[in-house]
Amino acid sequence: MKCDLDDLAAGGMTREEFQEALLTIMEQKIHWAWPLFESGKVTKEKLHLHLESEYGTYVRDFPILVARAYVQCPHAEVRRELIENIYEEETGALAAGKPHGELFLLYPQGLGMDIQRFRNLTLMPSAAEFREKLNRLTLNEGWELAAAVTTLFLEGTSFERGELDPLAAKRPTPPLTEHPLVKHYDLDIRQLELTRAHRKVEGSHRAAAWRTIVNFVNPDQYAHVLWGMKEALDAWLTYRDDVAHQCGLCRPAIDGVRNTE
What we know:
Blueprint: H1 5-10, H2 15-26, H3 34-38, H4 47-59, H5 62-72, H6 76-91, H7 100-104, H8 106-110, H9 115-119, H10 125-139, H11 143-154, H12 161-164, H13 180-185, H14 193-216, H15 222-246
């Protein structure tokens, strides 16, 4: 069942319709440039623009963004799920061994990039706007939207339906030897510690995210959460357009390939 989000938001909806509307939004988290990044079409000299932008918009501060949902949430069960996510992201003590932000920096380090650029970031305008949008959606719009934007949108992909439906397509998990940074940019496979950590914990994180949002958000907040998720999607698409153009990519004439990042 596909949803018309505007029609649903205009009136009441069931929990099942709310979940379907969220899935409909997530299935639009696809960007035309990702297949070009995956196939090595970005020169190594410009790849830092992509990595810096991802790090600065949300990777570095992801535990802070999730913590904003945690401190606003009145439900102990949801808080427990959120704090486990925060703890792993901030410390890596459950699976990764190190904070996830530090593990992300193994990518540019392994590619010989100047790590000081990541320590003293100046985001391009659209990236800064995306981050500001994330700040607004997680600080001022209630725990429900803060949790949805962080644990569903930022951590999720266009394959979220596969997290809920055993018959739906799953997020691809190719061998690490096929990772684009290894295959096209000669990154040492040992630098993929963050990818390994994500594969260890992502299943439980996805299940927890959907369980808390679908089961604990009150129906009177459904439209608000869907509005914010669409705001995040639109800002993300604009941001990714700018990163792609700054990396020298041009939009292909035909789209249709899903982002599997």
